[in-house]
Each structure stands twice: as structure tokens, then as C-alpha cells.
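Forwarding the complex inputs:
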Amino acid sequence: MVTYIVRRLVTAVLILFGASFVVYQLTALSGDPLEDLRASSAPNRDELIQARTELLDLNTPAPLRYFGWLAGAAKCIVPFAATCDLGTSIQGEAVTTSLSRAMGNTITLVTTATILAIIIGISLGIITALRQYSGLDYGVTFMSFLFFSLPIFWLAVLLKEFGAIGFNNFLDDPDIPPSTIAVVAIASGLIWALFASRSWKRKGIAFLLGAVVAAALLFVLDLVGWFADPGLGPIVILLTGVGIAFGIVLLTAGLRNRKALYSSLIMVALGLVAYYVVNPILNAATVWMIILLAITTVLVGMGVGFAMGGYDRGQSMRAAALTGLLMGLLIVVDRFMVTWPSYVDNPRVRGRPIATVGAETPGLEGTFWINGLDTFTHLLLPTLALLLASLASYSRYSRASMLEIMNMDYIRTARAKGLSERTVVMRHAFRNALIPLATLVAFDVGALIGGAIITEQVFAFAGMGQLFVQALQRTDPDPIMGFFLVAGILALVFNLVADVAYSVLDPRVRVKA
Amino acid sequence: MRFGRTSKAVGVAAVAALALSACAANTGTESTDEGTEGEATGGNIRVVEVNAFSSFNSSTSEGNVDINGKIAYATHSGFVYINNDLEVVKNEDFGTMEVLSEDPLSVKYTVNEGVTWSDGEPVDGGDLLAAWAIESGYFNDAKTDDAGEVTSGTKYFDYAGDTGGLGLTELPEIGEDGRSITLNYSEPFADYEVAFGLMSEGGIDTPAHVLAEKGGLADEDALIELINTTPAGDPEKPVDRPEIQAVADFWNTGFDTKSLPTDPSLFLSNGPFIASAITPDQSMTLTRNEDYDWGPIPKVDEITVRYIGEAPAQVQALQNGEVDIIAPQASADTVEQLEGLEGVTVQQGNQLSYDHLDLNFSGVFEDEKVREAFMKTVPRQQLVDTIVKKINPDAVPLDSQLFLTDQEPYEDAASSNGSDTYAEVDIEGAKELLAGATPEVRIMYNRDNPNRLNSYTLIAESAAQAGFKVVDGGLGSSDWGAALGNGTYDATIFGWINSGVGVSGVPQIFKTGNGSNFNGFSSPEADKLMDELIVTTDPAEQDALQIEIDKLIWDSKYGLPLFQVPGVDAHSDNVTGMEYMPNQTGVWWNFWDWQVVQ
Amino acid sequence: MSIQTPSDVPSTEPGTVTGPVHPEVEPEAKGLSQGQIVRKKFFDNTAAIISLVVFAVIFVLAFSSVGFAGIPGWWKYNHTEFLPLVNGGAPTVTGPFSWGEHPFGQDSIGRDYFAMTMRGTQNSIIIMFIIGALAGLVGVIIGACSGYFRGWPEAVLMRFTDVIIIIPVVLAAATLGEGVNRLVGAGAQIWLLGLFLGLVLWTGLARLVRGEFLSLREREFVDAAKIAGASNTRIIFKHILPNAVGVIIVNTTLLMSSAILLETALSYIGFGVKAPDVSLGLIISQNQEAFQTRPWLFWFPGLFIVLICLCINFIGDGLRDAFDPRQKKFSASRAKESAKPAAA
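Prediction (whole assembly, three chains):
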């Protein structure tokens, strides 16, 4: 295995050499860096052309110029020397600086979207596989392909129009007209009906239930002015928590496992206590504090599960830890909601919270909660756009994978043993269905840093994609090479990771050293 | 039973929780007063720019990007600025510009007392001298070959502007008061008014004391001494000037940064605003320079600049109330959409760039009659109607090769230069001139620019009616620039940018054999007038000369100016004071008049 | 030498994967040839059939209306004529049979938008098919050779694939696009753009096919063919390839629909099809500012993009289901029912 990895890494370096030469030549051929100056009527036009020629060393043929770049880039390999020289952009900024900044921005932009896309996409895939050729299957397939086919700048314009401008206008005067309530109710009813199983009677009940609940919820929220002054409060947290506890136990251990259920319920109670106890500390919250609290919660959850004992302690521990974590999330969300009015009224925000461009409100200074909300309002739309566009591939692949697994002999065996459908799906099928997806995810994570060119542009995010496109439009080779190095190395590494992970996850696959 | 115990525990916990929640009633998490205090609340204006800020020195060829120039404009002062009628306005609160003698031309610049950099150092003669040394190219002794490669000597300060004007001056002396210098020109220079300390080019933007210190010298006096004692550059006899080189090296790159430097001397202000925060590639905040009282006083406390490249994104950000002022790339739909927005004021006008059709004075167009015939077929009004009208409803075809409609002498020039002959398409007249001939004409243009493509299509269609065989010579955006003047085409459509102020650009385009004279236009008479023009300092005489040159160009059947490129900016009604400006300073030109409606 | 079993196939163990079709036919389809099974399954798939019909209609409309390759179409305008604005450039279509002068309206300088949309659809479809065919061909050949021969051919071919994978597609498209314009002018650029994109987009398919081949080559029927003296070519094309055809077709169709979107994205940043020719991607990104003021400039090409993508995807989905012998209609509740007696 080690020999294999080493050999692959060595080849990767050679590949980088070859490809970087090609990329450099492609860049040099892709345009005319002097275009804007040639048609200039400035009295010193010739001098300007000469200055840029010298800056980019245009009189040296591109194949030779490559080695100049390579000499600088080679220094990056020297460990701890900090002599890395990837050149500078036309505007004189070191490529290493702009790369690290662009990478940071891209990671902020795409991480949430990718994680959510993976979770939601896979869940949708699994559910549609279990209900193959049902209304739900067709509905989800149609919607995910629809979002997949929409050009993302179109999606962005729509999201901004309705998600930001429309919603902000609504917040100015948060009053929901009955017609909207009716539309939302019908939509919600339809979704519930889709998820309900096949019989028309159950679909009808689900539709009614969904519609009524949605309408009532909207009506009440509207009545109490919730949208201007949101919050969950202890009662809602408690009720949701209990719901979460049951849901998690149902999925992970089965409701018949009383110990797991009780552990989870204890965690809900503890969470509610924590809601009051931790509250004062949260005023001075930092990211690290939240992470620390999350870890504590998980540990406490595992402790509770362990204390409950039983024949399968692991299940109780998992369920309790997960419930605790989600309770913590509820408390944090509640806290963010309570901070919302003061964020909206902030003079920098001027009552228009949902943003259409950028990553932050310039000049906004505030607590962890205010800044957190600011990040949320800025990332909401681009994340949504990316999420919708990338749902299709995950849901399709996981659906196919799940369908294949469900026809396997060992699933038939599991059923024949009399295992419950939950156990069959969650323990036998689901996990195996994830294996091929690991490859896909590894690839996507590798490609992720390459940025989302168009999304970045329409949401004015200065990430890797924008760095690349702007350099390309100026025919500026150094930033392009920097981009290529980062994206290329990651692609190669994750390519390898995918291969290795696959053989680790699936014991039938063996790496030949 | 363990089960029972657990149930009890759960029950107790639940009861405790409910009791607690009852105590706390429904207040839930207490809201705290967060983040509202200590903010600059009054008068913040948020303006959108397309490009991201990259340097506090906008005068180098690397830093010469529109946004850097605008930031320099807001953070520095100078002797003159240009208003939106394209007139030169003196900023006497900063200092005086005094013409001591017309011929030989001698101009004295004096900075007022009390004008300081934001670190407290006075703006004085040393700063003026340093600015002069940079902008005059005094030390340069570089020689270049045809390929643009430097063969000997050095270009020290990588100044992006034209050194031709100040290059005529000799080494100036600092006045007795220590706050003035006198520039003595070896011959009269037409654009002397805007040659030094022009605010839209950064004004006096280099603090000499910082330059000296960072360039390895002891202090400002050492720099003055160095400038005074180092020999002037002579390309024939290049010598090494290591100390000047060190100073120039710092000036060339030392101010380049995308983030706010920790060293405040790298972004000193002597203007109304000073940079206070930068998020690279996202936004930049300028706050008031407390000391500033030498020039127009701004009304807002803070300007936030945000960078948004896409026009639709700009419009939606304005609509969403995230920004106050935008200047998107103009398109008919953007304008219409902006006009449809409530609470938004749209300002339309011309830019200083204009598209034109040039006919080569060689090949098929060597015959003046053929040129004239072709010019008669150009549907200029139709071009304006289809391409420009929707963006700028006041647009008209441009009727002068030298003046733009926004300039005062335009009317005189247009009425006398014979442009009215080509106001209407005259197919019959063109046919007559061609006398049955069907010349083949290859037109070169940038195919990737939709306006040029549309112009070409309309021109080609019309010319074909008169019997011209038009060949599409359009090239991609990376090729057309290199093809200019290489003789592979007969006519070309592209754009020039008129500086709006000054006359140095005229000979660059129209004088025989000059760098941007691509179609081989040559008129000894015009050459003579242009020689005269660039040494004429009186504006009225300049105008008269230019009107004459304009007529000569039209008479020679040079080609046709087509239209000025339209521009648009828009601002929310929460702010006032913006006025449209055709030049590249754009809406920033009167940022001191910007005001937040309370 | 590399990984023994494929890394890209959804499952691996020989015998349980998308198994060979001819030796063991599904019991309920006994007596039918492979082609018959596939056809039957495909025609049973409503979504795929509807998509096929819709796509055929779009195809015929696009190619017959504005003509193709010099053959004139039945529509009166072409995509380059400047015409006086009728109805302020707004669409004149009022019903399925009263199209009016400019059914889809006109763009800002008066070109007929129906003609532009049709021409754009044509071009987008051409690009899509070239990419599909070319990427399919190259991907299959490279994947098949490296998967079948293993050893050094595999090492070389797969590392070559890595090189292509890490060269940014946008950069390749931009450079090649410039080169194309320089070499051939605007006329043939659609074909060449498709050609070049096809030449860089085959990598994913190559990896998948290689995976497929790696597992199939170990199967008994391949050994049998070898013993019978079949040549390598014959084994690859007659024995293994038919078993991998499901994966190939499915992934090619997915690739084709993403090719349309890629072309749109390229046009958006200025490196796609160049004016005066049009593609759906080009006109939709040229008119993105018209979203609120003249929405028809946005909606019509957008509608065609979405329709084509949806159709191709559903057809691909249908093909996948049809070709995959293991993927029969699965129902959780029925499976539960049938499992119960066994448990009892």
C-alpha cells in the first residue's frame, strides 16, 4: 500500500511538470496582453506598451518564459525556506498572497453548500430509491434536473429578486396576505402528499395535514410578529427536542430500544436546563467556545448513553450524543434568532438583512452573534444557488447505488432473517450504498477549491474562480499558473485519496503494492 | 427497577425544566444591546466600483487602474481638478499656480501654509520637487530598440503618465518659503495647466519624507539634495544612479497593496479622506481626514467602496439597498431596469470614448473619390438610433474628429468642418462617385465587441447598396489590436478615448507617421498646425487651431467619427449631490457634494 | 500496479456487479434478446418516452425552421438580419397557430429572436452531439485499452488522463477558441468548439469504462473466449463492450446535458461561441440584463436549454434503467411482503 501511494505521488509530480508546461503555453496563446494599450491614443502609448512588455517579459518566447516561472515555483518545494515565488500579477501582487486569500473566500463560499448538497442529495437519493417510480421519485428527479439545467446566473438573479429584495421588502412590513398563506399551504400539502406512501387516502390525509399545519403556522407567526422578532423559546425547543429524540432513536436504534430512547430524552432535558444555564456565557461567545460546548455536549451524551448501559451501549451513546448535538444547535439557532432584530436595525444593515453580493457588510463590528448573522445573510443566497445546482448529481448517484444494493443477495438474506425494514435499510443497505459515493465525494472535494466561477462572479465573491477568470481575461500567466498548481495538486491528491479510500471502505478491493 | 429510576429521572428533569421556564416566563433568551454603539452612523455613502483596489500609488503602470485613481482622488489634494463641463478648475485653498511668464513659459506652484499630510508633516517644496522628478522622467536614460527591449540605460520611475510635458522643464528650485517650486519650460507647452498637480491624476500624492525614508535616505532634505545633485538622464551617456534607483524601486512597488498596511506612512492622505479599512477584493472604507480644510469640504463622514463586477449584480444590490451609487457598464436593458426602480435616480450621458471608422489612405481607398463614396454610405444616424439611443436618449452622431459634444468648441467645429455632407446616407451620390466601379473593401473590427459588430453589420449593409463589395475582416479581441496599421484591411472600426482636457493627444493620432496614426493620414498643412498647437498655451488659440485641423481632416476624407459611447450611473434617493461626469473619474469627481438625505 | 479492481464503478465483486447479460437472462424476460429487453424496458419508461418525443420535436423544429448547411428553412428570417422593430420588439405569438411577425420578439437591434433561438438550439445540439460522440469514443477507447491490457498501457493511459483532468477546461476552451477564430474564422467554430471540448471532456468516462473493464475481464466468459482463440480486439468489442454499454450510454448522456451548460458558462465569461453566430448559451448570457425589462430575451433560450437538458437527462435515465439488468423495478413494501413469509 505504502509503495503504491509513494509511486503514485512520484508520478503526480511528473504529471504536474508536464501539465504545467502545457497550461503555461495555453495561457500565453489565449490572448493578447497588450490589447487595451494597442488602440490607445495616449501620447506615451509606446512607452506603456514597452513597460508592460518588460513586466511580462513578452519578448522571450513562451516556452522559455515557462522555465523562469518554474525556477521560482521550484523554490516552493524547499521546506521551511519560505522562498516560494509564484510570480506576481499584472497589478503587482504576489500570487502566493492572492492565492491564499482567494482560497479562503472560496472555502467560505462552497463548504456549506457542498456539505449540504452531499447530505440532502444523498438523503433524497436514498428516499427516491426506496420509492422508485413513485410520484415522489418523479417529482424529486424532475426538480433536481430542473435546477441542474438552469444556468446558475439565472438562478442567482431569481434568488436575489425573491430571496433578498422581495424578502427584505416583506420584512419592512411583515404582514402575510391570505393569498400567500393559501399558496404556501397548498405547496406544503403537495409536498407532504408526495412523501406519503402510495394509497390515495393517505395522500389525501397528508395533503390536508400539510396544508393545515403550514397555514396555521404562518398565520400564528404572522399574528405574533415573529418575522420581525423571531425566536424559539423553551417550549418550542422542548417540543422539537422531543421530536428529534424520537426521530433519531427511530433511525439509529429503533424505538424498541428503550435505553436509547431514554438516553436521548435525558439529553433533551439536559439541553433545556443548559438553555438557561449557558445563556449568560453565550453573551461573550466565540467560535471556539461554541466548538468546545459542542464537544462537551457530545461527551455528556456519550456518558449518558454509557450510564444507561444495556446490551448495546453504543447505540444509546450514539443516539444521545446526536440528540444532544441537535439540542445544542437549537439553542444556538434560538440565540441567533433573538439577536436578529438588533442585527436588522444596525445602521450598517439599514433594515435590509438579506444581501445580494459580497461576504460581509463592510464596517460592521459586533459580537459573535451579529457577525454570525452577517455571514449567514451574505452566504444564504450563493449557498442556495450552489446547493440547488449540485443536488442532481448526488441524488442521482446515490439513488442508483441504493437501487443496486437493494437488489443484492445479502439484503434478501437480511430480510429473510426477519430483520426490521429499518435495520435492513439503515444497517445493511445504506452503509454499503455510501461506498461508491465516497469516490464521488473525494473528487468533488478536490475540485471544490477550483471555485465556482460564475457563482463567484454574480455574487461578487473574490474566490479562486474569479482569480482565474480575471487573469485569463488579462492574459496574465502567473495567477493562472498559481491557480493551476493548487487546483491540480488537489485534484491529483484527492484522485489518489479516492482510490485508496475505496479500497479501505470496500474490503473486496485490494491495492496491489 | 432501573427502568423506573430512569423514568423518574427524566420526569424530574422535565419538571425542573418546566418550572425553570415558568420562572423565566416567556422572555426566553435575553436580548442584549449588541453592536449598535460606537458606530459611525451619520453620513455613510456606499459606492460601487467594478475593479478592486490594488495600490496607493495610481501613477505607476501597474497601479494605473481606474479604482486606484479614484481612491487617490479622494485621499489627495492638488492644484487643479476637472469639472464635469471638462473645464480646469483651480483649487486655490490648496495652493496657487501662477504663470510668471508666457514665453518662455514659467509657472510657479506654491502650497498654502497649513497644508499637511495626515501624519502632521507639512506638504512642502520637497513634495513638489519629488513629484516633478517622478513625472518629468528627469533621470531616465533608457534607450529601446524596435521590439521595445531596453538596450542601454534605465527607466527609473515607472510613471504611467506622459513625461513629455514636464520633460520640457529644467531642474526646478525650491522657493525661499520652502513651499513652492517654479517650473521653467524650454518651449511653451500647451497643456501646462494640467501637467502638474492635477487631482484626477492623484494631485500631489507622494510624500517626499516617506519616499526618502523608505528609499534608504536619511530624510526629506537628503532626497532634495539627491535630486539636485544627481545628473540628468541622457540616453546617449547612461550612468548608474544607485540612490535614485533605490528610491524609484520603492516608489514603483512599495505602495502596491490590496490590504491596509500596518505602516500608516504607506497610505498618508493630504486630501479629504483617508483609508481606514480594507477587505481585499471586497470593500474599502474611507473616513474623513480630520485636519483637512484646504479645498472642497465633503459632507459625508465615510465612503464605503464595494467592488461588484457584473452590471446585473450592481443593479440588484442598489435595488436591495445594499449600496447607494452604482456606475454599471451601460446597456439598454440596464438603463431601462434602473429607470423602472423606485427611489433610484438615473443619470445618463456620454463617455469620453468614441467609436470611429477610419479609411486607409492606401489600397482601394487611395482614391479620394472612393473614400468619399464610402463615407456617403455610412448610416451614422441609424447607428446612433440602434446602438446608443436606448442608453442615452440625447445621443447624436459625433460630428468632429477632435472635439466631443461635451466640449465647448464642438459646435463651431462641427458646423464648419463639412461634416453635414455625411449627415444623411447618400447612396446615389456614392454611386455617382464610384461611376460603376465595385471596389472590394475589407473592414477590420473587434468581433467580440457587440457594438462594433453591430456597427460593422449596418455599415456593410449600406455600403453594399452603393456597389461596394464589403469583406468581413473582423478579428477576435486578442487579435484586432495587433492588426491595427498592418495593412491587411482597408477600413477599420474602433474606439479612441479623448482626454477631454489638453491637446497632446491630437498629434499622437493625426500627425504624419506617429504611433497611433494607423491609416496613413498625412497632411503637411495639418502637421504644421499641430506643431503650433502643442506650443500654444492660450486656450482660445488652441481651439481655433484645432478647428482648422479638424476641417483639414474632414476635407481629406479621413473617415468618420460615429458616436460617443454612452455612460450611465445611478444612485438611490437616500443620497444626493451626484452629477454625471464623462471622464474616467466618473461620479467621484464631486464626491465632496455627496450628501445623505436625513 | 494501480488498483486491482475498479475504483469508479458503483460496485465491484465479480458476479454481483452489472453482470454480463447474455449468459444469464433475467427470469421474467426469458426468451427475449438483449436488444428486446432493453427496448421493452425503455418503452415502458414513460418519462423517457415523453422526453424522447419532446427532444425529437425540438430537433426537427430547430433544424427545419432556419435551415441547415445551406438548405433553407421554412422560417422567413435568419439570425443575422436587422429588421425594423415590430411591437416594440416584444413577442407577437398569441397562440399555437397565430405566430405573428416575430413570435419570440426581437433583440435590441431588431434581429428576429425566433430565428436566433432556433439557430442557437441548432448549434447547441450540434455541440452537444459532437462532445457526446467524441468524448464517448475517446473515453471508451482509452478506458477499454487501459482496463483490458493492464500493465504499462494502463499506467501510461491513466496518467495521461490525469494530465487532461488537471488542465482547466475553461483555459483549454479559451485558448482553443482563440486559435479557432484565428484559423478558420467564424463559420466552422461551432464544430471546432465541440471538437475541442470533446477532446478534453472524455476523462470521467475513461475512468468509468476502465473500471468496468477491470472487473469484466476477469469473468469466466472472457476466459472462455480466450481459450476459444478469440483475438483481443474481438474480446474487447464483442464480449466485454456490450456488457459495459449501459454505463457508457448513461454517462455519455449525462455528459451531453452538462455540455450544453458548459457552453452556456463559457459564453457567459466570453469564451464560448462568438458572435455573429449564436448559441443558446450566448444569447441567454448576452441578454441576462434583460431579465426584468424584456424577459422574453431570457425566457425563450432559457426554456430551450432547460428542455433539452431535461430531455437528455430523462432519456439517459431511461437508458440506464433499460440497460442495467440488475436494476429491476424495486418496491420496498413488496420486498417486505415477499420477505415476511420467509421470516415467519
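DSSP finds 17 helices and 19 strands in chain B.
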